[in-house]
Structures are given as C-alpha cells and as structure tokens.
From TrEMBL:
Signal peptide: none annotated. Residues 159-389 form the Radical SAM core domain. SUPFAM superfamilies: Cobalamin (vitamin B12)-binding domain, Radical SAM enzymes. It holds the Pfam family DUF4080. InterPro entries: BchE-like, Cobalamin-bd, Cobalamin-bd_sf, DUF4080, Elp3/MiaA/NifB-like_rSAM, rSAM, rSAM_horseshoe, rSAM_sf. This is Fe-S oxidoreductase. Residues 488-502 have a biased composition (Basic residues). It comes from Methylotuvimicrobium alcaliphilum (strain DSM 19304 / NCIMB 14124 / VKM B-2133 / 20Z) (Methylomicrobium alcaliphilum). Gene3D superfamilies: Cobalamin-binding domain, tm_1862 like domain. Its cofactor is [4Fe-4S] cluster. Keywords: Iron, Iron-sulfur, Metal-binding, S-adenosyl-L-methionine. GO terms for cellular component: cytosol.
C-alpha cells in the first residue's frame, strides 16, 4: 500500500499537475511507496479526503497555488480533523515565501519552499525512518537540471488522450519584471537539448499532439528555439499544436524564417505586453522595446499562421484609466487574435509588493488576491474594468462577434467598449451566466442606445454573427419592426430586384 500520496487540485480536468510528476520521478526508491492522485477545485473537500485516506498513507503532499489555495485549505482542515496522525506536507508557490503564508500553512506539518524535487524526497525519507526534523519549513534545495529524473514517463494514457501535456525546455527567467515570481530567478537554465528532444519524441510516439511549453522565455536562446521548432516541423501532423510564451521584442530573422513554415492551427504564442507605458515599465523593472514589440506583433500577424494571445495587466503601480486606455488602444490596433485583460493579483514573494504602501495597493484578502484599488484607481473604476474584461472575453476573445466587434470599437476602442460594458451591466445586472441568444439581444440594445449605432447597421452585423453560431430560431433583435420586410439592406435590394421581374 502506498505510504506517500502526492496530490493537488487542478483548475480544470484538462490540466495535469506537472509539479507532482517531477516530485514522483525524483523519489528514487520511495517511488514504490508513492502514488499521484489529482482532483479538481470543483470537487468537494469531503470526497477528496475520503479518497486520500484509502489505505491510510503516512504522508500526503499537496501542491498549493493561487488558484487552489482556498480549496486545499478546506481539504487539509477536514483531513486534520479525521486523521490528525497523517503528516501533511505543503509545497508550491503559494507557500514558498515565509513569513507571507496563507492560513493553510498553520495546519500543515511541514512546508517545502521553492523547488522541491530533492528536498521533498529527503523529508519523506526522514519521516518514514522515524527521524522527522524539528523545523517546519524546509528550504528547497536546487539541483543541476541534468541530475533530475524526467517527469514525462509519468503522463499516463488518459493524460495523453484527454489532458494538456506540459513540458519545459528551460527553467527560470533572466528578466526582473516585478509582478512575476520569475523575477526572483537568477537566470534561465536550459535542459540538455538532445535529452529533451528525445523525451519529446517518446511523447509524440505515444500520441501526444498538444504540447504546452511552460518556459517563461522560450525565444531567449534562438538556436535552441529553432532546433525545437524544427523537431516538430519534421513531425507535422493533423492535430499537432504547440503553445509558447515568447518575449515580444526578440524575433531575429533566423527565428522568423522557421516560424513562417508552420501551417495554420499549429502555433499559439502567448505574448506578454502588460503595458506600453514607459514610466510604469521603469517602475516595475520591465525591459521592453515597445516599438520592436509592435513591429514583431505586426509581422507575426501578417507573415505567420500563429494564433497570437497578447496580455495586458490593469492595476499596476502608477496605472490610471487613461494610460491603460492608451495601452489597450495601441494593442487593439495591432490586431492580435486575443487580448487577455488581466487584473493585477498579489503574488506572495513578488518584488512588486515593495510598492504597496507608496501606491496604496489594496488587494482582496481572499484568493486570487485581485487588486481592489490603488492611489490612482478607485474601487468603482476597478470594478468597471473587471466587468470590461469579462465582457471582452465573451465578445472579443470568443470569436463569435467578428462582424460586430469592428463596429463597436470604431476609432476609439477603449472608450467605446467601456461605454458598451457599462450599458451591458446596466441592462443585465451580471457578467456571468448570460445565454448566447440573450447576449445578442443585449448587444443590440447597448449598441443602438449607448453607442448610437443605427438599428439597421447593428442588425446587419449581429445577424451575420448570429447565423454563424448555429443557434436555432431568431433572437429577439431579429424580430423587431422592419426585420421581416428585409433582413438586411442587401436583402431589401434583392427583394426589389425580384419584384421588378415579376
């Protein structure tokens, strides 16, 4: 029976716990005494505890992250009520920066901070040998990457069929952007290329077709990036999909030549723009050539088939509604396929926390610790942008409103979409659980009443998008007066021509 259970609560079933597989791979002889059990944040803590307690392990290790800390806390609290003798070990970024620790840390027997592959194994050996250490917090010991056992064999067949497979060609980041925990890294360290590609070959032969690279800076070492891309080009097949996080201002010609070779629906780039404001960039130690970033985004859109997912953050120190609007409008003009509007969150240990008092950064005390107000942004404004971001996901990022969105944004994207967002909230009272057909009707009202778009123009674009959704029947906006006489101006003209021949 396993004496060690490694577990976490994933955000969704499709995700897999990469960190647990690294811990398991590096347990050495203890691997025979261990197993991985994964759950989701939607699972009930009482059900999780019941499954964890089957065969009564001696040690349970939890991976704790910003997205699951509340649920892990509830689970550990229950576990300690019914089985207080079981040793609970916590690890992960949410518990790696003492004394800034969440409440669940008080319930744990041990906490392993930082990288855990070596230290977790050592701690388990001590506990099972009856030599448990007195200190509660164990500092994770770094290990040369070449000494780590590979996690990839521990993706099982179900993972390969149904889940995202995470891979990493390097660890760390040389940049010091203060909102990111990678700012604490000294530099980026690559895994040995031959070994890494050999592991990717095994995964590919097992049927993996969706590879999500977690490298913070995939295009840092261009020769390595090109070698990895060419590896996958040689194995191009239906369903192959690669996700990379890239530095937006670093696309040398050699890399561009390789990117141009990829067919559509095979590449996704997550491009962290975050802000175009030079003053904020300096304040948060972010090095970014804004003009080169724009040039590269234009090139990616025009010359490759890559899906471009660009990130902006609202609520950084020094941010205001006006300068965020300027960054947003500049990014919209570059036409990435998605713009992810992130609301700043407080990460434990992130250097950005040094600005908390000067800029009066006030965060939600509950996870995910989203920013509530700053010196320059009031709570009401922050709420408006939270709604803006949610509606942007539903309307722009969903891809369902390709005809409608340009009419909404026109020549003032931020200002007009903010007005639309305010109107949608006034009409619906919610940003959640809005049925698609109802969203079309709400958009018709908001566009015609708040943006003063003509009813004919609004109907034409909304109908074109509605027809593509596959929804049956007519939305209410399509039943308004005049619609049955002509569903669009083009149809009206066609009807007139038909009547002239009768």
């Amino acid at each position: 029976m396993p004496q060690i259970r490694l577990t976490t609560l994933n955000a969704r079933y499709i995700h897999s716990a990469f960190g647990l597989r690294y811990l398991y791979a590096n347990l050495g002889e203890l691997q025979n005494e261990a197993e991985i059990l994964e759950f989701g944040i939607q699972d009930r803590p009482i059900d999780i505890v019941e499954k964890l307690l089957q065969h009564r392990p001696k040690i349970i290790g939890f991976g704790v992250y910003i997205w699951n800390v509340a649920e892990v806390g509830s689970t550990v609290a229950l576990l300690k009520q019914v089985a207080p003798e079981i040793v609970v070990i916590l690890g992960g970024p949410e518990v790696s920066h003492p004394p800034d620790l969440p409440l669940v840390a008080e319930l744990a027997d041990y906490i392993v901070t930082g990288v855990g592959e070596i230290s977790f194994r050592g701690l388990c050996e001590q506990i099972l040998n009856g030599e448990a250490p007195d200190e509660k917090i164990i500092t994770g010991a770094e290990s040369p990457l070449e000494n780590l056992a590979s996690p990839y064999p521990y993706y099982n067949d179900e993972d390969v069929r149904n889940r995202i497979v995470y891979v990493e060609a390097s660890r760390g980041c040389p940049f010091k952007c203060e909102f990111c925990l990678s700012a604490l890294d000294v530099t980026a360290k690559p895994f040995a290329l031959d070994r890494f590609l050999g592991e990717m070959e095994v995964l590919y032969r097992r049927g993996v077709r969706h590879f999500k690279f977690i490298d913070r800076t995939f295009n840092l070492k261009i020769a390595v990036s090109i070698a990895i891309l060419e590896f996958f080009l040689e194995r191009m097949s239906d369903g192959l999909f690669l996700h990379f996080e890239v530095i937006p201002d670093h696309l040398p010609d050699r890399l561009k030549q390789t990117l141009e070779k990829f067919p559509s629906a095979t590449l996704q780039f997550e491009v962290g723009v975050q802000t175009f404001d030079p003053a904020i960039q300096r304040l948060i130690s972010r090095r970014q050539d804004n003009e080169k970033t724009k040039e590269n985004l234009r090139w990616l859109k025009a010359s490759t088939h890559a899906h471009i997912h660009a990130d902006l953050i609202f609520g950084l120190p020094g941010d205001t509604l006006n300068n965020f609007a300027a960054s947003f409008d500049q990014l919209v003009a570059l036409q990435p396929h998605e713009i992810q509007l992130g609301i700043l969150k407080r990460l434990r240990g992130a250097p950005l926390n040094r600005h908390n008092e000067t800029y009066r950064m006030r965060y939600n005390p509950e996870p995910p610790y989203n920013i509530l107000s700053t010196r320059d942004i009031g709570f009401d404004e922050m709420q408006r942008i939270n709604r803006f971001a949610r509606y942007w996901d539903m309307i722009a990022n969903s891809g369902r409103f390709a005809e409608t969105l340009p009419l909404i944004l026109a020549d003032a994207p931020f200002e007009r979409f903010l007005r639309l967002s305010d109107a949608l909230y006034e009409l619906s009272g919610s940003t959640w659980k809005i049925a698609l057909r109802r969203l079309f009707d709400l958009l018709y009202r908001a566009m015609t009443e708040s943006l003063a778009i003509s009813k004919v123009d609004a109907k034409n674009v909304l109908e074109a998008d509605y027809r593509k959704t596959g929804e049956k029947g007519l939305a209410s906006f399509m039943k308004t007066e005049g619609y049955e006489k002509g569903k669009s101006s083009r149809q009206n003209r066609a009807n007139k021509r038909q009547r002239s021949f009768e």
